[in-house]
Amino acid sequence: MKKMLWGLLLLLGPVAAQSQTTLTFPSGKIASQDWVKTYVDSILNRPGLPPTIPVTPPVNTDPSLLPCDAGPEIRSIFEISQTGARIQFHGKNVFGLNFQISKAGQLVRSGQIRPSSSVIQVQYSRLEPGIYTLTLSGSTCTGSDQKEFLIPGKETGVVIPDRVVPPVSAERGTYELFMNLTGFGYEPYAQNGLHHDWPERIEAFQYEWGYGITGIRLNIRWNEWEPAPGNFTRQGLQKVIAYCRARGLKLSVLFWPWRKEGDNFIPEGHYVTGHRGKQHEIETDKRMGSLASELMNEKIYTAVRELSAELNTYEGAYYLSIGTASAEEFTNPVVGEGYGGAKEITGFEPVFQEGFQKFRQAKNLPYARPYIVEWENGAALDMGTDLGKDFARFISLTLTRYFENFTKAVKDGSSGRILSVYSYPDAGSPQNAWYLHANFASQAASADGMFGTDGNDRWDNSRKQLVNAINLGMGKISMNEYDPFDLSSNGYCTGINLGQLEREFEKSYAAGVQVIHLSMSYCPAEIRGMEPHLRYLSEKYIGKPYVRPERPVTEVSITPAYWQGKDIFAPAWTGSNYLQPVDDEFWGEARKD
């Protein structure tokens, strides 16, 4: 009925207030009373002007058609221009679509589409900048949906942004609870861009009062984002964005710089390699490029800049981080970490050792291969000699340059809107002799936020507060995480202590943690059981304006504890102070860049 009415009504044109107008409707079809009233009022009250036609979803009049099994539902509208847009929609057994575009209630464009996937291209003749409404309806089954969208530009002298982006202070000024999609998170060719393990867990957080989480952090491996040089899986990320937008969830991304062996991204001599000659790897066929390689830094800059730019199309984008360890944090990688067997300290690939040689030459010192102390299933850099200290310094300088390159890519891609986050596994504990990353003063200087993942089980959760003290002592947005081992005795799917979850989360928020992450994997039943505890925390913290507690700041030199393999920051922490790392004694002399 409605399609037939559009033609009739558009032909009526301007009508004087005293004129008589007869509306003839097709036999057996009835327009709603409200619809007719709105139309008649537009004629009587606005003489000399075209009538305003209230927009209603088109209804297919073929009585033989049945309702669509699902949808069509408009999930998102993106890549919008004055002549077209792309639509992510959901539908089941929807083999044909009608679209109508209206502005201020007036139909301006229409057409038909035969979809071949859940993403369709809508093309239309040129439209002026402004706010429009898209109506999508089935042509082979009955069902419809509407969504507003914005064509950017200038209209009546007012600049219209290309998307609605909340101010940074409003977007980033609240307590958050994110779920990490650990390991396999991103599948660009899946229906929603997510690995099949995760949607069930995300949806388990949907309670009667809303989602218990405020966002997710997606794990994207470099080879999944850029399978071939310059070929980025933008559509895959847009699927994830559409999924998050439909649920009101923020989206952050961990960029994990793994490449498939033999894909020609990493040249010989530039693979991260341990002191015994084994390359850093996961899943037997994934390799990582040297952190000291200028060539690899250039490639990573381009990949991250494009990732940041694509993520920036989402108004709910939050942060980007980078991981080099097998457990996804940012460290000097350790070969074999997390996979059992003997550990190997890395930095022994030719390009890294060439860089160390130049570092020594700049100090007028001879080059020699640094010595690694070994024990059963373990290894550490010997920092008891000047040579060992210099190698630790060069590793720290390399990590600093690598992260600064990453941060620049994040900021360049998003025009400074998306946060750069430094993620680390331990707050300067003795295991830093493996990771060699604890010079936070240098390495995390360019970061907006710091994300500490310290703590092994439910009995040492005080380490979550220690990383917060460092994060806030450095003036960064503070983030920490809890995995199932932090809240249970036996690990995954064995039942977590929900009372401890509430107490720990409240303690973290009260201490100044702004973003808590649920890491690794919680079972859907455990997530559903969190409901009353997350409801309580939402009433008090989650989604509420963030407040940084005022506490005294204690400066902590990372030396000599760094050289001695001792705990660096914990001895200076009282439980009610912040810690500011300083590296004034670390370099021994002026830093050699």
- In the predicted model, the low-confidence regions spanning at least 5 consecutive residues are 1-59, 154-171
SS field, number of helical segments: 16
What composes the largest sheet?
Answer: 8 strands, parallel, barrel
CATH H-level name of the largest domain... which superfamily?
A: Glycosidases
Number of strands: 28
Ordered list of secondary-structure elements with their pairings:
Layout: H1 2-12, H2 33-45, E1 70-78, E2 84-92, E3 97-103, E4 106-113, E5 119-123, E6 130-138, E7 144-151, E8 153-155, E9 158-160, H3 168-171, E10 176-181, H4 199-204, E11 206-207, E12 210-211, E13 215-221, H5 222-225, H6 234-247, E14 250-256, E15 258-260, E16 281-282, E17 286-288, H7 294-311, E18 317-322, E19 334-335, E20 344-345, H8 350-361, E21 372-375, E22 378-381, H9 386-414, E23 419-424, H10 432-435, H11 440-443, E24 449-452, H12 462-473, E25 477-482, H13 498-511, E26 515-518, H14 524-529, H15 531-540, E27 553-557, H16 561-564, E28 578-582
Parallel strand pairs: 10-13, 10-26, 13-14, 14-18, 18-23, 23-24, 24-25, 25-26, 27-28
Antiparallel strand pairs: 1-2, 2-5, 3-4, 3-6, 6-7, 8-9, 11-12, 15-17, 16-17, 19-20, 21-22
